[in-house]
Request: fold
Amino acid sequence: MLRRLAFYLVHLRLPFQLTLAPIFLWGALLSDGAWDGGTTAAFLALHLFLYPAATAFNAVHDRDEGPVSGLERPPAVPPGLLGFAILLGVAGATLAAAAGATFLLLYAAIAGWTAAYSHPATRWKAHPAKSAAAIALGQGALGFVAGWAAAAPPDLADAALHAGAAGAALTALGLYPATQVFQLQEDRARGDRTLTVALGPAGALRFGTLCLAGAGLVTFWLVERRFGAPDALLIALGYAGLAIALLWLARRPDDGAALYRPAMRITRWAAAGFLLFLALEAVGSG
Reply:
């Protein structure tokens, strides 16, 4: 039982879930709301319950033997992992309820979106357009709005809400190829026509660069409007560096497992850079 539980925990890929944290935190910061117990509950519900549950749910249906995001050598899927993932998601919903009805609704929407991404009955992952939409909207836009809703009621008339959601969607979509290029061979073998399979690794990474350029423009406007030109220049440089890193990765000839480590380094450095930027903005705003 303890060995099985250990395998369950490995398949949650908890450290990797923190790479999604900047999207939630960016939404919370832009909302101008106060960080309270409900916001903390919302953050934990997403990053310790729902996102890990979705990752385990995906592992059950993919059964990867090669590298996956955050796990270079995934162990075999243990019996009962599907039930464990579902129970974890339900447990997170009880925690999400502490953040209010709006956040709970967004939690349910993200849960449904990620299930449709992996489940054989829908399997959005198998189609390039559907998989791109699932990542851009499910992890990007909805994750941003969830962060906003956890800190303050979303105002649909606020341009920052729409621009922030668009920037988050483009950022998530831009980084998506970096989490897929090392899975290309297994995706092809399963018949999953992901964005990377459809465009090829270099083409998908260049597409990601274009998405990051769009995200950088939107975020530059938001930051300049809210925090001033020097901070906007800083975020623009961050996006430019990330785009250059993807173009560098696109020049690598290997489309297999050898791309795992450089791709993961790019993803982790991107998350770390955004977290540092958000910390500086939060301290400055306070």
Observations:
- The chain has a mean pLDDT of 94.
- The chain is about 75% helix and 0% strand.
- The radius of gyration is 18 Å.
- The longest helix spans residues 195-226.
